[in-house]
Amino acid sequence: MAAVHRIAALPGDGIGPEIMGAARELLDRIGDFEVQEHLVGGASIDAHGTALTPDVLAACRESDAVLLAAVGGPKWDSTDPEAPRPEQGLLALRKELGLFANLRPVRPSTALLDASPLRRGS
Fold it and tell me: Could you tell me the strand order of the sheet in which 5-12 lies?
């Protein structure tokens, strides 16, 4: 029997839960995963007063993978420098898990191809 992979799912805020719902549907179709959802970002601030709790960080460390949707929104915008901010959860995850990159697909604008450091596709 194949090992079940454990995934810590962090739906976050705004469109995040909708994105996570679609991701969970995909995971259900392609394999056998043990997925546990946890609060992060603004949802965690609302529930716990902080963007990332030690328990959620521990759950992420104990998982085989972490799936993070989106964090933040106008509800948590503040000029108070002491107020917790949703992105603090993302930044803490990156720091504590030793992550440094956020890879996204890149498609240069046709008008800027000659000014782009990206190679033209073949």
Answer: 33-37, 5-12, 65-70
**What's the rounded Cα separation, in Å, for the pair 19 and 42?**
16
Distances in Å between the Cα of 21 and the Cα atoms of 28, 98, 101 are: 11, 27, 24
User: Which residue type occupies 74?
Assistant: P
Average pLDDT of each block of 10 consecutive residues along the chain (122 residues)? 87 96 94 95 98 98 95 94 95 93 75 78 58
Query: Nearest CA to 103 among 55, 54, 68, 52?
Result: 68
The whole-number pLDDT of residue 121 equals: 65
Element (H, E) at 17: helix 16-30
Per-residue three-class SS string for 38-83: CCCCHHHHHHHCCCCCHHHHHHHHHCCEEEEEECCCHHHCCCCCCC
**pTM assigned to the model:** 0.81
Q: What is the pLDDT of residue 113?
A: 81
Q: Beta strand pairing status for 5-12 and 33-37?
A: parallel
CA–CA distance, 12 with 90 (Å, rounded to integer): 10
